[in-house]
Amino acid sequence: MASELPPQVQNQIAQLQQVQQQAQALSSQKAQVELMLREVEAALEELSKLPEDAVVYKSAGELLLRVDKPTSESELKERKETLELRIKTIDRQLERAEKRFKELQEQIKRALGSKRPVAE
Which residues cross the membrane (predicted)? Predict the structure, then answer.
């Protein structure tokens, strides 16, 4: 059947599949970033329960380094902001991919719809 389709429609179908794969990859990325964000939020929640002079350690590769609570909170808040920004960026990319997917889908439907009476 693919050989019966005009080259333009074949190209649009290939683009449609590519956009679909991009959207799936973006959805997977978003899930990973959301998981990291939840971990940061949980760490901030736990830090908020500690006194200001509490001993806090952070992981650096295979090491645990001693840091003061305000420094640790500041780093986590910065990381949280970065992750939230990344999620917003991924959401915008997903919206664009969805819009492009619908455009291609409509183009393919129109192209196939205009060709069907001829093929029958």
Answer: none
11 within a domain of the structure (yes/no): yes
pTM above 0.85, yes or no: no
Number of structural domains the chain divides into:
1
Alpha-carbon distance values, 39 to 11, 18, 28, 61 (Å): 42, 32, 17, 17
61 Rama class: left (phi>0) / alpha (psi -120 to 50) / beta: left
DSSP E strands in the chain: the ranges are 56-60, 63-67
CA 119 to chain centre: 41
pLDDT band for position 119 (cuts 50, 70, 90): very low
